[in-house]
Amino acid sequence: MQVRIAKAALLATMFTAGLFAAEAWADDPPPPPPSATESESRSIFVFQVENDVFNRFSPTDRDYTNGVRIGWLSPAITVMPPGIVAMTTVPTFFGEPQSDSVVRRVGVSFGQNIYTPDNTFTSQPIYNDRPYAAWLYASFALQYTYKRRDEKTGIQEPVRLDTLQLDLGVIGPAAGGEFVQNNFHNIIGVAQANGWANQLHNEPTIGLGFERRWRTGRTVLFDDPKLEVDFIPRIGAALGNVAIYGDVGGTARIGKNLRDDFGPPRPRPALPGSEAFIGDGSFGWYLFAGVDGQVVGRNIFLDGNTDGYSLRVSHRPFVAEAQAGLAVTYHGVRLTYTQVLRTPDFYEQNRWTQFGSINVTFRY
C-alpha cells in the first residue's frame, strides 16, 4: 500500500510539474542571449569525497559508506546550436521575470558510490538490512546560469541555476566496490567486509535528472567587515533505473561574497549542482544549513536489481535530509565541508544515516 501511495504521489508531482511546464513553454519568450565574464571563461575542476568516517553518532561502515567523484565543467559557451538550446532550456514558472543573459556550460564527471549493511563481518546473506552495492558511473551535464541586471549596481547578477544531467553506469561486481573497500581497509589496517558475495548483480544504469536553484533575499548585514545573508531554494527530480524521486529544499547562508556561487555542492543521490563559481580572487566564506524532502518512487540500492533477483529491503516513500557546513573561496579555489544527516530510508532498520562530504573546486 505504501509503495502504491509513493508512486501515486510521484506521478501526481510529475503531472503537476508537466502542467506548469506546458503552460510556461506556451508563453515563454526566446531564451536570453549568452554572456561570459573573464571568470566564467575558465574551466572548473572538481574533486569530491564522501565517507561515513565523519559519522560521529556511529563511526562504522554502513549505508552510504563511501563516494568519490571527479569532474570538469567547461568554460562558458557563447555559441550553441539553437536546436540544442531549445531542447534543453527548461522554462520559468511561478511568475519569475525573464533573465537578461545566460551562461551555458557542459560538464563531465566520473564517480563511484559504495553501500553496505551494518553487519560487515558475516558472509551470510542478510535479509533485514540493505544489500551490498557499488555504482560506477559517468555523468554528462548541461548547466545554465541565468543572470539579471541589478538596478542598484548595474551588474549582471546570477539569479538562477539549472542543471540537466544524464547518468550512465553499472551496478554490481563490475563497479569494483569490493576491490576498493577491502583493499583500502587492508592499507589502513581495518577488518574487511565479508559479505560482498551477496551484493547486487551487474546491471547497466541510465538516469536523467534536473535541478533548479534560485538565489534570493541577499541582504548585507554589515559593510565593514562585510557580512551577508541569503537563501537558496531548490527543486529537483530524477528518473531512471537507479532512482526515481522528486525533491524540494533550500539552504540558508551567512558570510562574505555570497554572490560567488549558488551554495555548496550536494552529495549523491542529488545532482552535484553548483560546481561553477565566480569571484574577484578575494577571500570569501560562508556557513550554511539546509533541509530537503524527497518523495521516493525507486532506490535501487534498497529495492534491489530491476529484474527482482537480488536481496532487497522496503524503501520509505518519504525521506528528509539536513546539511550544514562551511565553504571558503580564495584565488579561484573553493573548499567545502558538508555534514549530512538523513532520516531512516527503509523500514527494516530504523536508523539515521550520517556522513561527511569534502569538495575541492578550482578554476583554471
UniProtKB/TrEMBL annotation:
Keywords, comma-separated and alphabetical: Signal
Keyword Repressor among UniProt keywords: no
Protein's UniProt keywords contain Ribosomal protein: no
Signal peptide: 1-26
InterPro entries, per database record: LpxR (IPR018707), Put_OMP_sf (IPR037107)
Protein known as: Membrane protein
Lineage: Bacteria, Pseudomonadati, Pseudomonadota, Alphaproteobacteria, Hyphomicrobiales
